[in-house]
Amino acid sequence: MSSMYIKIWFPEDFEKKHEAYKAKILSPNHKISPFGESFEPVYGEFKPELTVGELQTFNDGTVRFKGEIISMRGQLKELCRLFMENNQKLVTFDDVRDQIIDSKKRSSIANSTISKYVSELRSKLRKHFGSDVLPNQKKEGWIPDIKKMN
Fold it and tell me: Within its chain, how far is the Cα of 103 from the centroid?
């Protein structure tokens, strides 16, 4: 079995450019952001995008209950938003699949996997509401109960 080596060639001025960039980003006046050099975050001006009773989604991507941020991963936030947008309406497995599953993987995701996502969200919301706000609808999907959310 032969060993494989990969050699990476850097430009001659790489170290110089690297040091200059490092000095720039470590300066006290520089704001590091994944959105580019000119991005300036605005703190304290978060606005609710969607409100259902005491549950709200905000323009900063958070989901909050009575102002308290509910810690959850991105897929669960999208799932929560889907349920909030469809209060007292049937949300089917296909609705969930279309909303939170990458289009290349949709056909391979089983209903049981989607049920696990909903179960995870249900348990997070139950901690705040004190009851189940995402009741099952006989293998068809779920109907979020707005009355319990108020």
Answer: 17
Taking Cα atoms as reference points, which of 82, 88, 72 lies closest to residue 121?
Answer: 72
Within 8 A by CB and 6+ apart from 111, the residues are 93
DSSP state of 107: G
Looking at CATH, the fold of the domain delimited by 72-149 is given as Arc Repressor Mutant, subunit A (1.10.10)
Q: What is the DSSP string of 84-111?
A: HHTTTS-EEHHHHHHHHS-TTTGGG--H
Report d(CA 14, CA 148) in Å as an integer.
60
Mean pLDDT value across residues 25-32: 59
Q: Residue 30 carries which side chain, given as an amino acid letter?
A: H
β-pairing, 136-137 vs 91-92, is: unpaired
Identify the band that residue 1 occupies on the pLDDT scale cut at 50, 70 and 90: low
Could you tell me how many helices (H) and strands (E) the chain has, helices first?
5, 7
- Claim: this prediction has a pTM higher than 0.90: no
96-146 confidence digits (pLDDT tens): 999 888 888 888 889 899 999 999 999 999 998 888 899 888 888 999 986
Integer Cα distance of 86 and 98 in angstroms: 14
